[in-house]
What we know:
This protein has five helices and two strands. The protein has about 150 residues and is mainly α.
Amino acid sequence: MSNPVSGPGGVPRLTIGELAERAGKRPSLIRYYEQIGLLPEPARVSGQRRYERGTVRALAVIDTAQRAGLTLDEIKALLLASPDDEPAIDKLREVADRKLPEITALIERAELVRSWLESAARCECPDLDACPLFDDPPLAPAPRQPPRSPFPI
């Protein structure tokens, strides 16, 4: 039987504070990820959580995937896959194919907004009624954003 303080090969496991420091995350976020199943339940020693060193990598994957726009459910499906799981790689490609058009549209909108703001910064109109920036505005309505997690990243 393995020692809960040591991982495979006798490598010491990390406390939640050590994991949080190495990953640049708050302990509360790590506990939240456990609660929703993104991270596996860690071993415990005298009630204290002990994490495998690979959990640092899992937190990096979660962070990168979130910045890429993946939902927590999409990330969970990827993390639950085994390393040689072909369907998991297919799922990643499917998610990427679905997200790319969304991101392209956001970039196009952001460029339009930047252009409008640059024009507004150079505007010398005496008031808003005389300003042509508000005549038939070229800005399309903002896309509806999905709800975000109540826990900051």
